[in-house]
Amino acid sequence: MKKRSLLLSLTLLLTVSLVTACGGGGNAGGGNTGGGSAGGSNDPSQLVIATGGTGGTYYPLGGGMADHITKNAGVTATAQSTGASAENVRLLRDKQADIAFIQNDIAEYAVNGTAMFEQDGKIDAFQALGALYDETIQIVVSADSNINSVADLKGKRVSVGAPGSGTEMNAQQILEAYGLKFEDTQLQRLSFADSAKAIQDGQLDAAFQTAGTPTAAITELAATKGVKIIPIDADKIDAIIAKYPFYVKTVIPGNTYQTVPDEIATVSVKSMLVIRTDLSEDLVYKVTKAIFENTDKLGHAKAKEIKLENALAGVSVPVHPGAKKYFDEKGVK
């Protein structure tokens, strides 16, 4: 009897050991996590960077960052096209992505469980990796359009970005300043690239796009059909900022797009990178270093605006300890 009990105990011990061994080493977006430790033995073997639509700025920048993380951080990284900010938060929460581009206003909504996150509740699955550049709200129409003001959007076919995106919230807040609601337009929710194609084909009158300038989809549309960028009136800019202080006044320089020779007054939010809270300090340190020491090699014009000294500007959510370690070494505050 004692022999049978001993044999059973040894069998159970061996089974547990095998299961434990097979369970180690996560993979992209869904593996075991490092729990914030410095060792990082259970960090994912591949990092997924959630970006945005292929016609925006996030996707090509994310591709450049993935290359340098792969080369310099000892882990493979890939960029994934997504519906941008709000979707990216949920992908991090669900461990379907590890790093994400996000607007600073959307980060605020997520950590507080407000706006599009009211049903989700507060989301604490991410921390800041660093601020990047201004993201400009651009209201795009064809060059021959009779739309010249936000007020003219009433009754028109208007795209406000992908469902649940930061662009959608920006559009709602800007329309609100003019006394308009989504219901006052023929609303569509299209990605950057799809919005540009719909304007090109005469199936859409206007599109909101929140992205770094120049935005690829708008540049391409300007080169084919020609575009106008609709300005926001000065008093409306002041009203928007008074109610939503995460906005800043912005001027799009003349000739940013070939059919827009004049400066355009509008507003911007701040883009930033966030990363899963449960990734190890060591891994996040290496990722942060790989990104911020290679900004001149990311292959996109907007990368010129990513400055190490501004990496914490406009960041109101907690910074991951691994990123903080790197910024502390560099004297960034």
TrEMBL record:
Span of the signal peptide: 1-21
CDD domains: PBP2_TtGluBP
Protein name: TAXI family TRAP transporter solute-binding subunit
NCBIfam families: TRAP_TAXI
Keywords, in A-Z order: Signal
Record flagged with keyword Signal: yes
Domain of life: Bacteria
PROSITE patterns per the UniProt record, alphabetical: PROKAR_LIPOPROTEIN
InterPro entries: TRAP_TAXI
